[in-house]
Amino acid sequence: MPQPMANSRRERHSARLARVFDRQAPAYARRRRQTEAGHGREVSWRRRLLEAHGAVLEVAVGAGANFAFYPADAVVTAADVSPTMLAAAKPAAERAHIAPTFIRGDIAPLAFPAGQFDAVVITLGLCSYGDPLRALQQMRTWLKPGGTLLALEHLPP
Ligand SMILES: C[S@@+](CC[C@H](N)C(=O)[O-])C[C@H]1O[C@@H](n2cnc3c(N)ncnc32)[C@H](O)[C@@H]1O
Q1: Is 69 touching ligand 1 by the criterion CB < 6 Å?
Q2: Is the CB of 148 under 6 A from ligand 1?
Q3: Average pLDDT score over residue span 77-94
Q4: Residue 130 gets which letter from DSSP?
Q5: Which of 5, 81, 124, 126 could form a disulfide with 10 if both were Cys (CB 3.0 to 4.6 A apart)?
Q6: What is the span of the domain harbouring residue 97?
Q7: Would you say residue 123 lies in a domain?
Q8: Which residue has better confidence, 143 or 40?
Q9: Cβ atoms 66, 33 nearer than 8 A
Q10: Is 87 domain-assigned?
Q11: Does 1 fall in a domain?
Q12: Residue with CA nearest ligand 1 atom 10
């Protein structure tokens, strides 16, 4: 079973992750604009997935590819380790008329109170975690009883 990282090692790891994904942010923003314009298979997948109502936590939000698909009653908290991804996500939130609470941070050390969210959303994000099982376990604790984990992973080429 993987052991939790020591704090200093975790901080270095988070900083490295942020640098890697900061560089990728322009590509994710371009892809999000295509999705917003209705192009690509992701459109129907994201639309079907995002039946997320009430208090919603989206982890690894990236450039905000899901924002256009949230129902009007979703109150979104959006977390990502990359500040450049979050900067790219902000205009997408405005266009979608949602006002997420943005949190910059690595999911691994994030601590939300247990049972806070009606839904936790993660799309194309689990593959970037060193310990995806632990990330899923964390997400489960953040869900209210009967809450829903909504995940989209590993797009085919
Ligand atoms: C492949 S992108 C997916 C972005 C978006 N969810 C989508 O569907 O297009 C993966 C995202 O996960 C974020 N990420 C990776 N590891 C993370 C971690 N440990 N904590 C928080 N965010 C992380 C990256 O910064 C990046 O924005």
Answers
A1: no
A2: no
A3: 97
A4: S
A5: 5
A6: 7-152
A7: yes
A8: 143
A9: no
A10: yes
A11: no
A12: 125
Domains in the chain, number: 1
**Ligand 1 contact via 17 beta carbon (within 6 Å):** yes
* Confidence category of residue 2, pLDDT binned at 50, 70, 90: very low
Q: How confident is the model at residue 7 (pLDDT cuts 50, 70, 90)?
A: confident
Atom 12 in ligand 1: which residue has the minimum CA distance?
60
The answer to whether residue 28 sits within a structural domain is yes
What pLDDT, on a 0 to 100 scale, did the predictor assign at position 4?
58
Q: What is the DSSP letter of 156?
A: -
Tell me the CATH number at 68: 3.40.50.150
- Closest by CA to 47, choosing from 69, 65, 62, 31, is 69
Greatest mean pLDDT among 5-14, 35-44, 141-150 lies in 141-150
Centre of ligand 1 from the C-alpha of residue 15, in Å: 13
> Rounded to the nearest 10 degrees, what angle do helices 7-36 and 42-49 cross at?
110
Average pLDDT over residues 81-109: 95
Whether pTM exceeds 0.90: yes
Question: Which residue among 5, 24, 32, 82 has the greatest number of ligand 1 atoms within 8 angstroms of its CB, and so is best to mutate?
Answer: 82
